[in-house]
Specification:
Blueprint: H1 5-15, H2 41-90
Length: 91
């Protein structure tokens, strides 16, 4: 028996497709006379495209903030070292 049969049936019924990169010759859960199915990847991509745009923007913004934070921390650490050296010279 096929594992995840319910998931396959959901994808076939929701998107009217089968397979991701290449379409097979027939559906698994539908009648063979429905014709050759189309690949699912373009249809699923269109459906979740907006969610990935938001996630991508968030990741780029987070990375930018992280880089700015690292840059600021490096300058703070360098400033403390210079201050300690000046105190040693005075003593």
């Amino acid at each position: 028996m096929i594992k995840n049969y319910d998931n396959i049936a959901f994808i076939e019924n929701t998107y009217d497709c089968m397979g991701f990169c290449q379409a097979p010759f027939f559906y698994i859960t539908k009648d063979i006379f429905n014709g050759k199915p189309e690949p699912c990847l373009p249809k699923i991509t269109k459906n979740i495209e907006s969610s990935f745009k938001i996630a991508g923007i968030f990741c780029v913004a987070s990375g930018g903030i992280f880089c700015i934070t690292c840059y600021c921390l490096c300058s703070v650490c360098a400033y403390k070292e210079d201050e300690e050296e000046e105190e040693e010279k005075e003593n």
